[in-house]
Write a structure and sequence with these properties.
single chain; alpha/beta; 10-stranded mixed sheet; 6-stranded mixed sheet; 36 strands
């Protein structure tokens, strides 16, 4: 390797494995590795991975000029309830915002309804007098005299963090800022999250819930990020560390420590960025991203080379597919559906005799039974091993010894005996259920967004994505699959292509026919200045890209539609253009516009990002040459439900145009691509594997 100080490092800490990628400035991958995540101190697993790729590439710490990090720590802390003791401070008269929520049950007729745990009991819900209007006018002064009593209540309740959400603070944050100033003076150790900084939007319950989530994980994440940076700096790292966010961009550690809620789902966001880039390279305008790791599976729709985004999602739902059963969080985020279906997902038979998979996971410690680390639970990985789909000698780069007999015993004990099956039957049953769970989640996500999966190409990655891709695609009615290079560490590779960005969304109500254009331009300019200052902290040089949007609706509706704003400053001439754009998008989503209805705008968004790295268009040749197998392996065929001989192929030895028919296994150091019996595989010029379902054959769905 040339002696260059221009290398980039990406580390994605997942629930089971930590993925590490080292690349040069031309985006050439120099080394990758997977190391078991170290739950008690995730930094240790990350350090091991970093040292391993640097050693493999013959490089040193001083040569790294860019470091991008994503982690599931924020997500897991919220799901597992491992955060700080939090109190809330709301405007006097609004103590019960959390208790009232949406004023409805998420499942109307469920007599055993489990309400979402929103982290703060009523005993730790405090109030302070003072009132702003929705336009930001003060109608009641802030009660500074009442802060002393509030301070005493907070101190006596033993809280570590406080979420402040005062009425209409998004329009005028003066009262929140003054309260923080006074609380900090009295309780300097108290961590304080202000709603106008975390989620400056209307809808008090969502804003409060988001601020609580931020406060809940802020002490944990601040300590983790400070320790992470200190350990890597001590190793010789000289560049700043940038953090991947849920919205698909990067931000500084300082911003991440202040707004850790934006780190939720940061790892999966990297996978969506990778899939979007591959979609652009291959000119595939409609894509289904499928990322299956050790703990969860994530599916994301990508249209016109951009992942779908949203401003609202829920964490830790009590009911997997029912909206309202989780903790609502309102931040910019890549829209995806995530289920507890990974290699470590635990299989069990419930009291009704039904086979269930996940969402509990064996994780990395002790891991699946096949890992031979003391794990006894039957998992998806144990099923794949028992079905012959994983070569024990090649798993995890050959660094992890696998016990196939332990996998079979675990499946027989947990599934086989209760259901009267042998180990093979139990493994096949686990495979059937987990693949249908993932395909069903994809179908539901497509229906909810008005999309058709059958026209899409699936881009599959993650440690288990290529292994399950054909089995999931068949059930989801997807006929084409692309397995990219280095799929086992796909999310970490995606980090390398993410821009430094920050998106801010603020509420400012107006109607289209009474829009104050000059005032809105000043409002949008202030938002852009705020976002740009945060982006420049991570990208001091280079051109910045601005995107602006308005969230519009008909008068009386409860939800808005995102409409892009022109790049130039708004003028009166843009008003009819915005109306036409809204009506066109409304017609696309709901079949027709509603004539004569007043159009409102509630929220405005400004995203500032560094310029995306250039995309190289893929050029393909129609060459097809039979690939040479390195051997055979007996696998349980998911189509014929019989044991069959599958061809073995080493991905590193396949060349552009090489073609093969399933059943087959294409192995590489960090994962295996299973080509089902009804699929063909072909290598393209860029090293991607394309899987195509054979239409002329008729098979039972396995």
């Amino acid at each position: 390797m040339q002696n260059s100080n221009r290398l980039r490092l990406a580390i994605d800490i997942g629930g089971t494995f930590t993925d590490t990628v080292l690349a040069d400035v031309h985006d050439t991958i120099l080394a990758t590795t997977k190391t078991p995540t170290t739950p008690l101190n995730p930094t240790l697993g990350a350090l091991e991975g970093a040292e391993r790729v640097l050693t493999e590439a013959g490089a040193g710490w001083s040569q790294i000029e860019g470091f991008i990090h994503g982690t599931t720590l924020a997500t897991n802390a919220l799901i597992e309830r491992r955060g700080a003791v939090v109190a809330t401070v709301t405007t006097a008269g609004f103590r019960d915002i959390l208790e009232i929520a949406y004023e409805r049950r998420y499942s109307q007729y469920d007599i055993n309804l489990v309400k979402p745990d929103l982290l703060v009991p009523r005993a730790r819900a405090f109030t302070i007098a003072g009132r702003m209007t929705a336009t930001g006018a003060e109608v009641e002064p802030f009660d500074e005299a009442g802060v002393a009593a509030l301070t005493k209540e907070l101190a006596n309740s033993g809280v570590q963090a406080v979420a402040v959400c005062l009425m209409h603070a998004y329009a005028n944050p003066a009262h929140e800022l003054r309260l923080r100033e006074m609380l900090t003076a009295a309780l300097p150790e108290l961590v304080i999250s202000l709603s106008h900084e975390v989620s400056p939007e209307a809808r008090e319950f969502d804003r409060l819930s988001t601020t609580i989530a931020n406060a809940y994980i802020q002490p944990l994440m601040a300590g983790y990020l400070a320790g992470f940076q200190a350990r890597f700096t001590a190793m010789g790292l000289m560049c700043p560390i940038l953090m991947m966010t849920a919205g698909g961009g990067m931000t500084t550690i300082e911003t991440a420590a202040r707004l850790p809620i934006r780190l939720v789902e940061s790892g999966p966001a990297g996978g969506a960025i990778l899939a979007a880039r591959i979609a652009a390279e291959t000119n595939e305008a409609e894509v289904l991203s499928f990322d299956m790791g050790g703990t969860t599976a994530k599916l994301c729709l990508i249209d016109e080379f951009r992942p779908l985004t949203t401003r609202r999602f829920e964490i830790a739902r009590a009911e997997r597919f029912i909206k309202g059963s989780g903790m609502p969080v309102r931040i910019p985020v890549i829209e995806m559906i995530e289920i507890g279906a990974g290699g470590g997902s635990i299989a069990h038979v419930d009291r009704l005799g039904r086979l269930q998979i996940g969402p509990e996971s064996a994780g990395s410690v002790p891991g699946p039974a096949a890992f031979a680390k003391g794990g006894t639970h039957a998992t998806v990985t144990d099923a794949d091993v028992t079905l012959g789909l994983i070569d024990p000698k090649l798993f995890a780069e050959g660094r992890l010894e696998m016990d196939t007999q332990a996998a079979s015993r675990a499946l027989e004990a947990a599934v086989g005996l209760p259901m009267g099956m042998d180990a093979t039957g139990a493994a096949h049953g686990v495979s059937e259920i987990v693949n249908e769970n993932m395909a069903g989640a994809g179908r539901m996500h497509a229906v909810e967004t008005g999309k058709d999966l059958s026209t899409r190409v699936m881009i599959a990655f993650g440690g288990n994505g290529p292994l399950h891709a054909t089995r999931v695609a068949r059930r989801a009615q997807v006929d084409r699959i692309l397995i990219p290079k280095n799929p086992g560490v796909g999310s970490a590779v995606g980090f390398l292509f993410a821009p430094v960005s920050f998106e801010t969304v603020r509420s400012r109500y107006c109607t289209l026919d009474t829009m104050d254009v000059d005032g809105l331009n000043r409002f949008l300019d202030a938002m852009a200045d705020e976002a740009e200052s945060l982006v420049r902290a991570g990208a001091p040089q280079g051109t910045l890209v601005h995107r602006r949007a308005a969230y519009m609706r008909y008068h009386g509706q409860g939800h808005e539609i995102q409409i892009s704003l022109p790049d130039h400053r708004l003028t009166d001439a843009d008003v009819p253009l915005l109306q036409r754009a809204f009506e066109d998008e409304y017609s696309r989503q709901f079949s027709r516009a509603v004539p004569g209805m007043k159009i409102e705008i509630l929220n405005w968004a400004v995203e500032v990002s560094s310029k995306a790295r250039p995309v190289r268009q893929s050029v393909q040749t129609p060459v097809r040459t039979p690939a040479k197998a390195t051997g055979k392996r007996s696998v349980f065929c998911d189509v014929t439900r019989q044991w069959r001989a599958a061809g073995l192929y080493n991905r590193a030895e396949l060349r552009a145009g090489d073609f093969l028919e399933g059943p087959a296994l294409i192995t590489e150091p960090q994962t295996t691509t299973f080509v089902s019996a009804d699929f063909d595989a072909r290598m393209d010029e860029d090293g991607n594997i394309w899987l195509q379902r054979r239409k002329e054959d008729t098979y039972e769905h396995g």
